[in-house]
Amino acid sequence: MEMKNMTLEVFCATTASNEPAPGGGSVAALAGALAAALAEMVAQLTIGKKGYEEAADEMKAIIPEAAALRAELLDEITRDSTSFNAYMEAMTLPKDTDEQKEVRRSAMQEALKKAAEVPLHVAVTAAKIMPMAATMVKKGNANAVTDGMVAAMMTRTAVLGALLNVKINLGSIKDEAYVADMKAKIHEIETAIIRDEAAVLAASPLK
């Protein structure tokens, strides 16, 4: 069964088992999907409510965007879990000759890069939810402000959790230029998401 189609109980039980997947990367993607769902919910609860007429068009525009991100991140749950498979397969390649060893080494390195790029994509995708969460907290139905705040916190968790998986893969990649470029991207994304979450929570009327 595809992970996104599991019941919550089965997904949690499988995560808790000694199986390697789903793990932190898949849970990070799920956190992002839930953040998007919360943004959708607050938007739905705002449209048509008295006193929020001016925000209606913005809320209507956010709903399909959040829905698309939710769907994409749900797909990333499985993609993250299988992204390391190519590396495991590369490890099984023959290594009897120098030529075979080089082919194996190259395949392993390329697989590691791909394994790093999957959670990076999760982080970049999930980060797109933070502006939506900000809108929900600032302009959404005040009765659902905590849902907007949780969306912001879940977004931060999704982004930072995914980036941890990028970092652990970078530790085994020998391409120094590639690693430096990825580390720069990670730093930029981390800095922005931490700053933006703080701003959203600061904008909340709950202190």
Automatic annotation (TrEMBL):
Annotated InterPro entries: Cyclodeamin/CycHdrlase, Formintransfe-cycloase-like_sf
Cyclodeaminase/cyclohydrolase domain mapped to chain residues: 7-187
Superkingdom in the source lineage: Bacteria
Gene Ontology molecular functions: catalytic activity
The protein's name: Cyclodeaminase/cyclohydrolase family protein
Source organism: Faecalispora sporosphaeroides
